[in-house]
């Protein structure tokens, strides 16, 4: 039997899905592929099938943390993150950590995010064109928000960035480096947790350290796992998402002009940008079947690894008319970019706020923004869970 083709698929255009997605949606919605570890997995692409895998408890997230289990990211091994647990443990963890994302706290963060985005873009404008949007906004905005949430100094950002870049690599030979980076981050976060216990502050980590429900608390390992998750999903995903969103809008000048004139259209536009985005590829959604299950007419055996491919599902023509087009007025827009079911992203609302604040600030502050180089000259990261250009140089009309 031939070896299944390698996954992730390659694409000449980082902003658009590989050609294989449309082919699989049409001809082979459930098919075998080989991930970088050499493990075979079932790739599921159609919207309804992906939703089912994401919500069906017969597909386990926790099973990927076991030694030797198929996984795309080495960081998943042994993790106790809410991101990779099953009920009832997942139910317990989510109940405790959800306090960090209460409506009141999100409203407070929203005000801070908008102010920070305006501050960062104002600094870019003051320095004058050209400017690097990655260094000026896409990286500092989400990581500053995360640092404020955790109560850590911004001066430590370079260390966070270096550790998490390694931890979110899927390179087959990176396990040693991943373990070293995770241990370094664990030492740092452990010291931070202990400091919060001794001197509570008005930050998310203090809330989590103190969070209790009928005497139940998060232990240190669970707090560490949440810190990893927050840095990965809250920083890297948003940084990549901002880059993809801006580049997509720059390819659609009519939509860009509309947003300048109709800022109220920004929330709907962000939802459509999220649907089309290739920033994350849904690679973190891997599951393992607990029992034999049939998906899309294909029998998946107990113990088989299954990857519900969110980016393909978001282009399913059975659900999204003209799926490759950018249609900011698309309604409804039931994309799966933040997942589905019990593992739906806790920080989804914060992610939306950051994208709206970042794009809105760029359009208000940098009139006529455009790339300073040809798009083909951008250098993209490879082997990371969230693809992004190393730099994103832009120019604009000076007032």
UniProtKB/TrEMBL annotation:
InterPro entries: Cyt_P450 (IPR001128), Cyt_P450_B (IPR002397), Cyt_P450_CS (IPR017972), Cyt_P450_sf (IPR036396). The keyword Cell inner membrane does not apply. It comes from the Bacteria. Coiled coil: none annotated. The keyword Signal does not apply. Keywords: Heme, Iron, Metal-binding, Monooxygenase, Oxidoreductase. PANTHER family: CYTOCHROME P450 YJIB-RELATED (PTHR46696:SF1), P450, PUTATIVE (EUROFUNG)-RELATED (PTHR46696). Belongs to the cytochrome P450 family. This is Cytochrome P450.
């Amino acid at each position: 039997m031939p070896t299944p083709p390698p996954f992730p698929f390659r694409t000449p255009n980082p902003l658009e899905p590989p050609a294989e997605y449309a082919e699989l949606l049409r001809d082979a919605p459930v098919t075998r592929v080989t991930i970088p570890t050499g493990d075979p997995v079932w790739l599921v692409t159609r919207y309804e099938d992906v939703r089912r895998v994401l919500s069906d408890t017969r597909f386990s997230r926790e099973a990927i943390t076991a030694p030797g289990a198929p996984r795309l990211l080495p960081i998943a091994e042994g993790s106790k993150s809410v991101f990779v647990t099953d009920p009832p443990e997942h139910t317990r963890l989510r109940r405790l950590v959800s306090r960090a994302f209460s409506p009141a706290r999100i409203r407070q963060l929203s005000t801070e995010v908008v102010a920070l985005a305006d501050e960062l873009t104002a600094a870019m404008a003051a320095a004058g064109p050209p400017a690097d949007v990655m260094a000026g906004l896409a990286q500092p905005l989400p990581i500053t928000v995360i640092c404020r949430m955790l109560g850590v100094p911004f001066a430590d950002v370079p260390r966070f960035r270096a550790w998490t870049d390694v931890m979110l690599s899927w390179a087959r030979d990176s396990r040693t480096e991943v373990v070293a980076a995770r241990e370094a981050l664990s030492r740092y976060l452990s010291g931070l947790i202990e400091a919060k216990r001794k001197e509570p502050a008005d930050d998310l980590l203090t809330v989590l350290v103190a969070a209790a429900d009928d005497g139940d608390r998060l232990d240190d390992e669970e707090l560490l796992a949440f810190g990893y998750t927050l840095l990965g999903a809250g920083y890297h995903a948003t940084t990549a998402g901002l880059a993809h969103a801006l580049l997509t809008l720059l390819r659609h000048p009519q939509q860009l002009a509309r947003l300048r004139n109709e800022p109220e259209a920004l929330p709907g536009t962000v939802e459509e940008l999220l649907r089309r985005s290739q920033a994350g590829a849904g690679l973190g959604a891997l599951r393992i079947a607990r029992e034999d299950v049939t998906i899309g007419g294909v029998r998946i055996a107990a113990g088989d690894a299954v990857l519900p491919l969110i980016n393909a599902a978001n282009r399913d023509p059975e659900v999204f008319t003209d799926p490759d087009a950018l249609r900011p007025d698309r309604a409804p827009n039931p994309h799966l970019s933040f997942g589905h079911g019990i593992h739906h992203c806790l920080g989804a609302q914060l992610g939306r706020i950051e994208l709206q604040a970042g794009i809105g600030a760029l359009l208000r502050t940098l009139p006529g923004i455009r790339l300073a180089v040809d798009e083909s000259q951008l250098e993209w990261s490879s082997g990371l869970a969230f693809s992004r250009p190393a730099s994103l140089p832009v120019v604009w009309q000076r007032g």
